[in-house]
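4.2 Preliminary Data

To establish feasibility before requesting continued support, the project team ran the inverse folding procedure on a target of 296 residues. The structure was first converted into the token representation described in Section 3, and no sequence information of any kind was made available to the design step. The complete token record follows.
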């Protein structure tokens, strides 16, 4: 039987949840909520009851699951509210953007009150690569992430400041993917440097040591474009996962490509359709956020 499900938060990312929630065999999306009646993704759910108050929705709908797609600062409050009504929450990454809120969320995670949605782990090219290519013996992994979240003067756009900066918002995606190939508890930061807009990172360069693998992470919100790529050196072979194109190449030759569903729609579609095997452990979530928060 499907789980009666509600969606809290109808900002930009919420529209990408639509396909997966509607196609999933386990979730039955029955209502949506946002404090803003003109929220940008409200039109993606025109057939569902809309609420401006999450408490009212939880009381009237009595769902089993709430998907929380709001800003990180609101996560702990909303998970607590869901717990009050006996509702399990699925929460957008990251947990939080600071140590205090992260500790609150980790405490609730240990009580099994929610779990996390790390959407990038469930991209089509990563799932294919995980299934078909053995990463054992990798010598180097290089993540490159670009998002157009800053203006020409290097200032984070006001509409993106709530994300906590490039290291928190984009780094959480990178580390979740790295957890597929390395035990994050054994990962050692060698050097992590940030270029900041005020106290918020707008560009990050990180060198990590993961067992015998050199891991390099380059994140920038300053290039004006949206581009994601991972290069993995395994023996004499170089694999490039072009996330923006949903493809994989080996030594310059494309060996996988699937653009049948828009990139972010595909991430969430795979997450919901693979659920509950798409959930990752509390230990991994804790390790991801420890690396993030302790190295801002």
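Position-by-position output of the design step:
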């Amino acid at each position: 039987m499907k789980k009666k499900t509600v969606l809290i938060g109808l900002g930009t990312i919420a529209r990408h949840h639509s396909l997966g929630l509607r196609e999933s065999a386990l979730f039955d999306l029955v209502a949506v909520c946002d404090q803003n009646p003109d929220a940008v993704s409200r039109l993606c759910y025109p057939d569902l009851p809309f609420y401006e108050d999450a408490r009212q929705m939880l009381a009237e709908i009595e769902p089993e699951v709430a998907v929380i797609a709001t800003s990180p600062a609101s996560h702990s409050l909303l998970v607590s509210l869901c717990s009050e009504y006996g509702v399990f929450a699925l929460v957008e990454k990251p947990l939080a953007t600071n140590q205090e809120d992260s500790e609150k969320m980790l405490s609730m995670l240990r009580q099994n009150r929610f779990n996390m949605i790390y959407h990038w782990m469930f991209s089509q090219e990563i799932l294919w690569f995980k299934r078909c290519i053995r990463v054992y013996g990798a010598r180097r992994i290089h993540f490159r992430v670009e998002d157009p979240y800053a203006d020409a003067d290097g200032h984070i756009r006001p509409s993106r400041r709530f994300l906590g900066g490039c290291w928190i918002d984009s780094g959480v995606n990178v580390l979740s993917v790295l957890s597929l190939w390395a035990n994050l508890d054994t990962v050692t930061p060698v050097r992590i440097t940030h270029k900041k807009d005020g106290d918020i990172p707008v560009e990050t360069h990180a060198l990590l040591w993961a067992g015998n693998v050199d891991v390099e992470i380059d994140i920038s919100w300053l290039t004006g474009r949206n581009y994601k790529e991972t290069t993995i050196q395994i023996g004499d072979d170089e694999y490039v996962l072009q996330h923006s194109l949903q493809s994989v190449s080996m030594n310059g030759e494309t060996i996988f490509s699937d653009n049948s569903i828009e990139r972010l729609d595909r991430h969430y579609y795979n997450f919901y359709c693979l659920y509950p095997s798409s959930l990752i452990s509390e230990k991994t979530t804790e390790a991801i956020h420890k690396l993030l928060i302790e190295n801002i």
